[in-house]
Amino acid sequence: MMHLILLVLSLSVLLIIVRKMVTVEMRQRPSNISDEEKHNAILLLWGIGIMFLLLFIPYQAWQLAGSSRGWDGALIMGSSLMGSVLIFFGSYCTIKGKRMKAQVPSI
Prior knowledge:
107 residues; elongated; mainly alpha
């Protein structure tokens, strides 16, 4: 039961981090070097969180499926990794597309 809770929690945290990362990206572009360094450091920190979650989600799915060490365990790890990457890129594209569409002035 705990693995299911951690899996759902990590998926929701992944979506929250993606939303925050898009918010940071869509801010005004930095004007000087120190602001650009700060901007890139913030994006790097969000990226580290995403990388951790992209590895943690397949592990929790593997634990939830019974921790098999055979080919079925590899299949579970691989498919959940692909699923979490697809969720990440799908939500990133959707959120960024909505934000970019909102910034474009209407004619």
